[in-house]
Amino acid sequence: xxxxxxxxxxxxxxxxxxxxxxxxxxxxxxxxxxxxxxxxxxxxxxxxxxxxxxxxxxxxxxxxxxxxxxxxxxxxxxxxxxxxxxxxxxxxxxxxxxxxxxxxxxxxxxxxxxxxxxxxxxxxxxxxxxxxxxxxxxxxxxxxxxxxxxxxxxxxxxxxxxxxxxxxxxxxxxxxxxxxxxxxxxxxxxxxxxxxxxxxxxxxxxxxxxxxxxxxxxxxxxxxxx
Length: 226
Fold this sequence. Notes:
Blueprint: E1 2-6, H1 10-26, E2 31-35, E3 45-46, E4 49-52, H2 54-60, E5 66-70, H3 75-87, E6 91-92, E7 95-96, E8 101-102, E9 107-108, E10 113-114, E11 119-120, E12 125-126, E13 131-132, E14 137-138, E15 143-144, E16 149-150, E17 155-156, E18 161-162, E19 167-168, E20 173-174, E21 179-180, E22 185-186, E23 191-192, E24 200-203, E25 208-212
Parallel strand pairs: 1-2, 1-5, 2-4, 5-6, 7-10, 8-11, 9-12, 10-13, 11-14, 12-15, 13-16, 14-17, 15-18, 16-19, 17-20, 18-21, 19-22, 20-23, 22-24
Antiparallel strand pairs: 3-4, 24-25
């Protein structure tokens, strides 16, 4: 089986290293490569791996012989790429670092990426294509929605619900039982005491709405999804 890491930037390099750590334990993949649709990267190599556009990847590797993980930190672009990949019939791989504490009663859907040192407690639900960065923690009965990104050292207490395409910045904390709507951005080190409606950018302690998330952008870089 081949694993294509979709995204050849810094996060892609981190995800590739995570895949190597997983492979030491489970030996799930025989070959790795990067997928990136940026013209300047096509045909190059990173860490000795080929970088190819998605169209070239489709022409070379069948859906039976390859699966893909998405290594992009922008939730909206994660969602667009997931839809494109699934439309072509490819499966999304699951990556869980061996040094993550993952409850035997946690539910992890395809495409989820859980990195080093996370604590994922009992009866949690990490939905498709969600990304948990290093040393974050999910309390019991917490749900993280599709395509959402939980940054390093975030703490989400028990019974909280995080919607789809949400970005939670580093060192943020979310109170138990809180509901975070879809397309929300939570700023770094914010403390969320109350539920947040869809489509807002919030920050501070306590976290307060700053403005609407009209551009659906965390980092502001251009889309490269075609």
